[in-house]
Amino acid sequence: MTPAEIAPKDRLIVALDLPSVDAAEAMVNRLGDSVTFYKIGYRLAYAGGLPLVGKLADQGKKVFLDLKLHDIGNTVAQGVDSITRLGATFLTVHAYPQTMKGAVEGRGSSNLKILAVTVLTSYNEDDLHAAGFRLGVSELVEARAQQAQVLGIDGLVSSPEEVGALRKIVGHQMSLVTPGIRPAGAASGDQKRIMTPGRAIAAGADYLVVGRPVVEATDSRAIAEAIQAEIAQALG
Ligand SMILES: O=c1ccn([C@@H]2O[C@H](COP(=O)(O)O)[C@@H](O)[C@H]2O)c(=O)[nH]1
Fold first, then answer.
1. What is the C-alpha radius of gyration for the chain, rounded to an integer number of angstroms?
2. Confidence (pTM)
3. Which 3 state secondary structure label does DSSP give 39?
4. Which parts of the chain have pLDDT scores under 50?
5. Closest atom of ligand 1 relative to the 119 alpha carbon
6. In the chain, where the domains are located
7. In 3-state terms, what secondary structure has residue 102?
8. Is the dihedral of CA 173, 98, 92, 163 positive or negative?
9. Ligand 1 centroid to 135 CA: how many Å?
10. Residue located nearest, by CA, to atom 19 of ligand 1
């Protein structure tokens, strides 16, 4: 499927950052047929959430496993090989060359798509410098995107602020997935590079990841559907 063929509704990925499998399943039930794509990250994965990947896939949902792997290449390759059997659509690794190379090797010819996390959306220039990087956010995101492309990575995670530049580098060969999405007026929390759903889609993002604004809402389904409507409007 080319990015242009992705239905507006399927571009919203809801982050199930919830404390238990019961809480996650209750959220999936509340969202019903409105949401087709879910993300499982640290909180749920370490609370027994990995079997939920296959369960959601059996219900026709897609699952983004956001484990942000980073280790020596051999360990990453072996870990990713195990993960190919869980039924996820996307898996994240950090965008370090050895890590990305190992992930591509572990993925092999399976259907699992590897996304490289370029620079976390909670980081700004000061945070990067404090972590010892010489490059600024946009330079590091672009350098990592070029390396990811050469290594055969399937997609990139960045903030929507970098999507325009990334599209020029990688074209439509790689999926561009953006957290750091906030509906107008929503609290940014710890996110520092943020955009509204409509602006992120207009900038060229393929998928939007939204957690707290949906899962902490009084009416999660209404918020998810409002985001999907904004996505559809931005796509024209
Ligand atoms: O750079 C990144 C990579 C991953 N994330 C994850 O996305 C969600 C965002 O949740 P919100 O509640 O909408 O802020 C969360 O699971 C992060 O781990 C990211 O935010 N930035």
1. 17
2. 0.98
3. strand
4. none
5. 1
6. 3-235
7. helix
8. negative
9. 22
10. 179
Three-state DSSP class for 111? Answer: coil
55 is catalytic: no
Given a contact cutoff of 8 angstroms between Cβ atoms, the answer to whether 100 and 148 are in contact is: yes
Query: What CA–CA distance (Å, rounded) separates 146 from 24?
Result: 36
At the second CATH level, the architecture of 3-235 is Alpha-Beta Barrel (3.20)
Known catalytic residue at 71? yes
Q: Are 131 and 151 in contact (CB under 8 A)?
A: no
Could you report the per-residue pLDDT of 172-207, keeping only the tens digit for each?
999 999 999 999 999 999 999 999 999 999 999 999
Q: How far is CA 177 from CA 59, 120, 155, 208, in A?
A: 23, 12, 7, 6
Query: Which of 105, 187, 148, 104 is CA-nearest to residue 162?
Result: 148
Digit-coded pLDDT (tens) for 55-71? 999 999 999 999 999 99
DSSP labels, 132-183: T--S-HHHHHHHHHHHHHHHT--EEE--GGGHHHHHHHHTTSSEEEE--B--
- Give the Cα separation of 199 and 196 in Å (integer): 5
> What is the predicted pLDDT for the residue at 4?
72
